[in-house]
Amino acid sequence: MIYPMLPTILLLLFTSLTEKPRFVDKSTSNHSVYASNTVPTEESKMEQVYRSLHSDRFSLPKLVSFTEALKGYYSLKEKGIIKKEILTIIDFSISSNAKRLWVINIETGEILFHSLVAHGRNTGEEYASQFSNASESYKSSLGFYATGEIYTGKHGMSMRLDGLEKGVNDNARARGVVMHAADYVSDSFIKNNQRLGRSQGCPAVPAELSKEIINTIQNKSCFFIYHPSRTTVFGSKSIS
């Protein structure tokens, strides 16, 4: 009975001897497990939010100013100091002749406004370089603010700002540093004077945009004024 099965047995034996052994690539397997267990860093999370920003009309802020602003936004939101999903960024490292104010809906990633904005007359000419928290300095103050209430002043519809960083901008309300409209914040002023007009320390915006911007960001949204010197001069300030 064994003879009829002999060819089959020999074929199976030959196949087992000639078949190449299968090896598992442990390096690839381990790499996959490692990659799947990698926890994203805070910086990578911030960059991911930055990459998700979208606008058909406006350019993006710089990554460095956005990530610093976003860190503060999350901290203030967690503490309940700000209530809205709106983040306003002013980047004073940029020429005043260029649009350097952004209003962003963090929840949707939409850039709502991108505008010119003035700095204080003693803060610099075309570029902002000197900042102060002191009254009568006519200088801009850096750092994080909570937007306040709307009122009607000498510039018409205006919005108060509450500085949140001690020694950096916490004197803003007492100084009367507010957002308001100004005719000197315009392309025509730049054309005639080679630079944007300057305020007494207020982040003044174009008259045609002021009401829309103020109505959008008023009442407890995050407002941040960036400049590279902020970290150098003030260090890592706690946000109260």
Task: Characterise this structure.
With 240 residues, the protein is an alpha+beta fold. The chain is 35% helix and 20% strand. The protein has helices spanning 2-18, 26-37, 42-51, 63-79, 172-175, 187-193, 207-217, 229-234, and strands at 86-91, 101-105, 110-115, 143-153, 156-163, 178-179, 181-182, 205-206, 222-226. The strands form two sheets. Strands 3-2-1-9-4-5-6 form a seven-stranded mixed beta sheet. Strands 7-8 form a two-stranded parallel ribbon. The model is unreliable at 31-36 (pLDDT under 50).
Task: Briefly say what this structure is.
The chain is α+β, with helices and mostly antiparallel strands and 240 residues long.
Blueprint of the fold:
Layout (H helix, E strand, L loop, with lengths): L1 H17 L7 H12 L4 H10 L11 H17 L6 E6 L9 E5 L4 E6 L27 E11 L2 E8 L8 H4 L2 E2 L1 E2 L4 H7 L11 E2 H11 L4 E5 L2 H6 L6
Parallel strand pairs: 1-9, 7-8
Antiparallel strand pairs: 1-2, 2-3, 4-5, 4-9, 5-6
Number of helices: 8
Share of β-strand residues: 15-25%
- Radius of gyration from the alpha-carbon trace, in angstroms: 29 Å
The average pLDDT is 87
The main pleated sheet reads as:
7 strands, mixed
Question: What would you call the shape?
Answer: globular
Query: Structural class, please?
Result: alpha+beta
- The CA-CA distance between the termini, in Å, is 93 Å
Approximately how much helix is present in the residues? 25-40%
Could you give the order of strands across the largest sheet? 3-2-1-9-4-5-6
Order of helices and strands: HHHHEEEEEHEEHEHEH
Number of strands: 9
Give start-end ranges of low-pLDDT stretches: 31-36
